[in-house]
Amino acid sequence: MAEPKGIILVVEDDDLQRELISENLRQEGYQVFEARNRREALERVGQNPVEIAVVDYKLGEESGLELIKELKKRNPLITPVMVTAFASIETAVEAIKQGAYDYVVKPVDFKKFLLTLERARERFRLQREVTELRNRLEEKFSFKNFVFASRAMERVVVLMSRAARSEATVLLTGETGTGKDLIARLIHFSSSRNSGPFLAVNLPSIPETLIESELFGAEKGAYTDARERKIGKFEAADGGTLFLDEIGDLNPGLQVKLLRFLQDREFYRLGSTRPLRADVRIIAATNRNLEKMVSEEKFRADLYYRLNVIRIDVPPLRERKEDIPLLVDHFIREYSRREKKNIRGISAEALNVLMNHDFKGNVRELENAIERAVIFAEGEIITRADLPVFLEIKSESELDSGAEAEFSRPLPERVRDLEIREIRRALEKSGGVKSRAARLLGITERMLSYKMKIYRL
To answer: Mapping DSSP to helix (H, G, I), strand (E, B) and coil, where does residue 72 land?
Structure first.
């Protein structure tokens, strides 16, 4: 049996009308449940995964509007469509206020009715995807995952708290990898919009030819491959937050359209002349110097001022090294759980390597280093040998007392340092067992003992 096109509940007290609508919908491939009144409708919804509820405006002595309100309370994902013989503006507005997606007028034009149901199905699918995404993110991006000890991050959290209590546009600035995306999510999930969608768009990752339709949507036929209407991120994020990452990469034409949205809350789908409205909060982020771009006329000044209402500058990890031990502990717990390993911590020597690394990739680089260390660690403690080699080489270079450039040092010195480093790694990896360490190094145990003696290890 073919999958149904969708699952619809038809609530109509007139038996002939209800059967006529239901039969036509079944012929179109829908799975249909029927109800004559409020009690039966609530029973059907309680027993079946209803997606769309087609509800008559008057159900005998009962109100279809009240039923819609109750259905939405029982299941916020249900998309109701009101059927009414009273085609007034007041009726339509009241239906929408109670949660109806749209309304159709009796006698029902079935062709138009099917188009309305198609749009309602699209809305239901979108809401379901957003809800599933939010459920995944609420656990992953809760404040318990935001660890810090530094005064610099205390200032960031104060601004985040103020941003969460506000509806203003937020501009996040800072180097790549500092956690701007996490901060954007935390602001959203701590705000009054937390029940709405949070959608993130990395602007440089979208091809120039597709970015407008990705953001604002497109009508069928708007461009060569537009075979059906496309819902853009602004429309999909209605009632929630849209995070525009790397806003400095937005081209001038789209800067104008974003500015128009921020001013009027209106936008146009590509290929349409009908304005659409969306209740969306914008959080933008960049690792570029927007002030400089404005002075060079590469970024619109009026858009910059619209975005820069609440500004949060996220400091790089090298300026808040006191956060490193807490972050290390957090990532060890997170990846140990994922890898099903019992790793209790990190050795002092390994932590010292991390504390002396400059982390140009910031928190993201640190997280990747700990993830790799957890994967390769064989004991309960992460050792220096488990860390990526580039971290150790960088740190030893930084700690070198002479602070000389790598190639200005004599070759024998560099060979000596390399041997010492590799012997230490092998000994830590083998738990101090010389025979095993020698095998890891590809030398005899006698040669290893000799080198340990001359290097005083």
So the answer is: helix
Closest CA to 390 of 407, 365, 423, 419: 365
pTM of the complete model: 0.59
Same domain flag for 292 and 172: yes
- C-alpha R_g of the chain: 30
Tell me, what DSSP letter sits at residue 429?
Answer: H
Residue 237: pLDDT over 90: yes
User: Scanning the structure block, which residue is given the tokens 């203003």?
Assistant: 168
What's the average model confidence in pLDDT over 85-101?
75
Following DSSP, what letter does each residue of 115-157 receive, concatenated? HHHHHHHHHHHHHHHHHHHHHHHHHHTSGGG-----HHHHHHH
What per-residue confidence (pLDDT) applies to 340? 93
CA distances from 234 to 96, 136, 262, 395 (A): 20, 21, 11, 45
**Does residue 1 form part of some domain?**
no
Mean pLDDT over the full length of the chain: 85
Strands (E), 303-406: 310-313, 345-346, 381-382
Distance CA 223, CA 270 (A): 8
In this prediction, residue 128 has a pLDDT band, given cuts at 50, 70 and 90, of confident
Distances (CA, A) of 278 to 80, 119, 164, 291, 327: 20, 17, 19, 29, 38
- CA quadruple 83, 89, 93, 96: dihedral sign: positive
The amino acid sitting at 52 is I
Look at residue 352 in the predicted model and tell me its pLDDT.
87
More reliable by pLDDT, 246 or 229: 246
Beta bridge partners of 173: 286, 313
Length of the chain: 457
Give the chain's domain count: 4
The runs of H, that is alpha helices, within 383-442 are 389-399, 411-429, 434-441
Token reading at 241: 């937050």
Domain boundary among 299, 315, 331: 315
